[in-house]
Amino acid sequence: MKFEDLLLETGGFGRFQILILSILCLPRINLPMNFLLHNFLAATPSHHCAIPHQEAFVNLTMEEVLLISIPREPDGTFRSCEMFLQPQFHLLFNSSLQPENNSIIQHCKHGWVYDHSQFTSTISTQWDLVCERRGLNQATATFFFIGVTIGAVVFGYLSDRFGRKAMLLLSLLCSAVFGMLSAASISYSMLAITRTLTGVALSGVSLIVLPLGMEWVDTQHRTFSGILTSTFWSIGNMLLAMVAYLVREWHWLLVAVTGPCLLSFVCLWWVPESARWLIANSKVKQAHRHLLRCARMNGRKDFVEDTPLIMYAQRTVLQKMATDKKPGESYSYISLFRTPVLRKISLCSGSVWFGVAFSYYGMSMNLTGFGLNMYLSQFLFGIIEIPAKMMMYVLVNRVGRRQSQAWTLILTGLCIGANVVIPKSFTSLRSVIAIMGKGLSEAAFTTVFLYTSELYPTVLRQNGMGYTCFMARIGGALAPLVFLLDEVWRSLPEVTYCGVAVCCGSVAFLLPETLNMRLPEGIEDIE
């Protein structure tokens, strides 16, 4: 007897599963509010060099002081990072005669003045992360994703070793602690360290939530539950836009997105440990207790009859299902590459995860590049993800996981590439293409979570998810740094995102199909 058969005897998909999935959706909402927080936490408002007061400026307006102190761009706007060595008073009479001699221009020497009409403060304005220090601003997101990368390895192993629930609670508690410490940062170094540690903790939440829910769901409802859970990521996207719109000060914004971790921590005490994991680790009594609880809530009275004979028979079945292990045998990340089929799955799925995350965060962190208000862009990017997920619910059940994964990622890359060749003046068209690309990117992300959880056996599922999330977070860490390539060629970041998405999408064709297949329990089921 397989676990799916036993799960059907306890009610298959009933009130027990619905309640578990509902509770697991709470931390899922909180994830994008932290993963995409960089858009608002590190937003850089318009700015110019601070100009020291001079007696000659007494009778001049601020506009006139800027005119004679700061050179202009060809489009007439003031430069953000340069100022004149000496005031150019002749510009008061003819402002079009911009000096062409660069020897009278210098970098900002007295700091910067920021436009506070949109943001009260961000980390950019707090520590002047502009101009020559612009790289440090983008590096904040990279530090966070480096933490997420480390966390994927750590929590992937720990959740297979010590259980899903315990590690999920630990990661939520650590997320709340480090998030609050980030909000209290008094220096850039402190912020970089605490954001990295927050990334480590949140990686555990991202890694464990979906498999924990999936392992309590029967084969028939696996796709539905996977996509339902991922829909709450999109809700979190939209909530981030609203929270950021209401909270314009970066310290309090961090507090606002960290607080829900505590609520999730409290609610998750009710969620049981995965019975699959308990059985795979020979914890039969605990698994039996949770299965009885499941059957009782689902109204399966025949399963919960408390007679010694029935109880003995049920535990005997569970004991037989427990994964056989050789003395001293243990599973680790190395196990993902020991056997040929599993090795191929690991290499290909790792590449796909890298491409999905690299293109997704490349688009998600470019909110101002399509001609829309950044709050509106964030909200629209969240809305478009919901119909994309509904579309994937149909596609993954009709055309399969493999084709859906490959084509959504390839089309994401083509949408990014299309905006490279469409002129900037076609704002509406560029916005439509960008929103379509964002929807396809989220569709690829939705599919890869579901697909990967079905590719790996129970004894290695969290190790597999940890490894693939590790690859994804490398992509997420590199994505914000690619924006700095615009100094080489303005369109180079978009070309890079496009090329990686198309190549990694093509790799998905090499993976096996898992549509309507039982979840594998051991490595022998894969091979």
Question: What topology does this entry show?
Answer:
Blueprint: H1 3-9, H2 15-35, H3 38-41, E1 47-49, H4 62-69, E2 82-84, E3 105-107, E4 112-114, H5 123-127, H6 134-162, H7 164-183, H8 188-214, H9 222-246, H10 250-258, H11 260-267, H12 275-280, H13 284-297, H14 308-321, H15 340-364, H16 374-398, H17 401-421, H18 427-455, H19 461-482, H20 492-507, H21 523-526
Antiparallel strand pairs: 1-4, 2-3
**How are strands sequenced across the largest beta sheet?**
1-4
Strand content: under 5%
State the total count of DSSP E strands.
4
Distance between the terminal alpha carbons, to the nearest Å?
20 Å
- How would you sum up the major sheet? 2 strands, antiparallel
Pfam family, one: Sugar_tr
Catalytic activity: 2-oxoglutarate(in) = 2-oxoglutarate(out); guanosine(in) = guanosine(out); urate(out) = urate(in); glutarate(in) = glutarate(out)
Family: Belongs to the major facilitator (TC 2.A.1) superfamily. Organic cation transporter (TC 2.A.1.19) family.
GO biological process, one term: monoatomic ion transport
